[in-house]
Design brief:
The chain is of the alpha+beta class. Helix content is 67%, strand content 19%. A hairpin with a 3-residue loop joins strand 1 and strand 2. Helix 4 packs antiparallel against helix 5. The relative contact order is 0.09.
Length: 247
């Protein structure tokens, strides 16, 4: 064997040793890496899976569609109390207006009813006044009727009253009432028409001379009244006896 062959053999024998050494080192490194990997695997690693949801949330937050929907919902949510307050305000105004209108209507109706009652009472008083007289009190009678009258009727009765006075004195006529019924027909707070039914008892010298009982009659009259100040005065009274005297 030559020197060159020996060197080559030695060289060839060294190569497997180097390869074996390299394999050992690699194996040692593999063990170390495995140990390191075991250490890493033993420690909790929650950060990795949380990265994607966070990125997804960031992506949604940076997107254009999602904020529009959320803001629109918030805007509508903010408008709800405003609209509710507006509707409540409208309803409150309507309720207050309705109460005021109802109160005014009720107040007006109450005023009208009071006026009707007062006018009816005044008509009854006037019917009793004008149908009650005698020769001794005829002048006072004329004054009272005049004070309770107004308008054209007041002027008309002023003329007829003197004729009535002469008849009452000459005939010794007397008149009184035994019944009085009055009913409101129409009108408002300033004018009224009242139906007056007078049960009248009359007598005179001729009846007395004949020993006859006083005659009883019922007179139906429509009295027109007008509010003057705080009093109801009669401006129309169609009493049949006065019409006869006027003719």
């Amino acid at each position: 064997m030559s020197t060159d062959d020996v060197g080559a053999e030695n060289e060839n024998s060294d190569a497997p040793k180097e390869d074996a050494k390299a394999d050992v080192l690699a194996e040692d490194k593999t063990v170390e890496i495995g140990k390191s990997g075991d250490a890493v695997a033993a420690a909790p690693t929650p950060a990795a899976p949380k990265t994607e949801p966070k990125q997804a949330a960031d992506t949604l937050a940076k997107g254009t569609a999602q904020p529009v929907t959320q803001n629109g919902g918030k805007d509508r949510g903010a408008l709800v109390p405003i609209v509710a307050a507006f509707i409540a305000g409208v309803l409150l105004v309507a309720a207050v207006t309705a109460v005021i209108v109802f109160y005014r209507q009720a107040s007006n109706r109450a005023d009208e009813l009071d006026a009707h009652e007062a006018a009816t009472a005044a008509a009854c008083e006037y019917g009793k006044l004008i149908s009650t007289y005698d020769p001794q009190t005829i002048d006072e009678y004329l004054k009272k009727v005049d004070a309770a009258s107004t308008g054209d009727w007041k002027d008309q009765f002023a003329k007829l009253g003197q004729d009535l006075k002469g008849v009452v004195i000459d005939a010794k006529a007397t008149s009184s009432t035994y019944d009085m019924q009055c009913g409101f027909q129409s009108g408002d707070t300033e004018h009224a028409n009242v139906l007056v039914v007078i049960g009248q008892t009359t007598t005179n010298v001729n009846i007395a001379a004949a020993n006859k009982p006083p005659s009883k009659v019922e007179l139906v009259v429509v009295a027109g009244l007008k509010k003057v100040g705080d009093k109801w005065l009669v401006d129309k009274f169609d009493l049949p006896i006065l019409k006869q005297m006027g003719n």
